[in-house]
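Table S4 entry, Oxidoreductase, putative.
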Amino acid sequence: MAVIEKGKIGSGSTSSNTALIQYSGEKMFTNLVNTFGKMYISMHLELLQEAINEIEAACRTVDLNCEFQRRDSLYSASCSEDVESLRKEYDFLKEQGLKVDFLSKEKIEEKYPFSREAAIYSYGDGEMNPFKFTHALIDYAAKKGVQIFENTEMNGHHVDPQTGRVILSAKGGLSISAGKVIFACGYEGIDLKKEKQVSFVSTYTVTTKPVADLTFWYNQTLLWETARPYLYMRTTADNRIIIGGLDDNTPYPEDRDSKLVHKRDKLIEEFNKMFPSIQVEPEYYLTAFYGGTTDGLPIIGKYEEYPNSYFLMGFGDNGTVYSQMLSKIIAEEIRTGNSPDLELYLNDRPLVAKK
């Protein structure tokens, strides 16, 4: 087994991943049910919960401290018109056996220094350091005998007609013969294979300087909201605060980058509105393209022009959880020849018509 990485391990979107580890995503499960059916989404939700448990187990197994911490989440209504849909989402999650509470305006105000009309309070989500996690997994794999090639860009691939194996070539003269290939290169995978269900926006994040006192933040919950685009916030192991959102539809990098300072200041302003007792200072801030799917589910791509290959497209706002879930399915398919969950996420969505 071998891993080739075009750049440095953990670079690209990994190093800018804000790593809110949640099962809920940008599209409410009740909306996904309308598209895919209740049984389909019930299975999806179960797999997401398993993936979070598996991420935690991996963090406990590797040698490096990945700063994994279980956190609860507050998903709040951004306006009164969103309360009804939030209540329906809560009812669905409760029906599925999730540990959730529905908080009234009064309950929110008891716990937090800001007010919202209503919120879903979810137990057992998490946060971690994705850069450390990636390096820890690579280190673990290397110790198990996996060959790791960093700064090694693939520049060709074809199928040997006699053996059916995929031959990958890379800069520096490296050639790899593989029975199966997994393209898990994040958004750069779209450069290899265009996928019609993937779309991109521009997003912005700020990481503050360390905060001396976080007691004002109830349980240091992950915070996000129903508005689109939405704001999200979390704390870190070294008492910083990550604030993100204010997504922009611009497809042009120059336009996106020109807005960074304004978006940084706006994110800080929004945080101070919610937590007026503390004034935070930005230390790191960035902007990047952010990929999602049109129907709200991640994708395992299998294409005729790429035989014996899988494209892992864990795109979406909880892409780390998606990626864990999809990688397990792909590994099971390769190992046993059949994963019962594969069809849930294939690019052609074969089960959609079988609600």
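The chain is about 30% helix and 30% strand.
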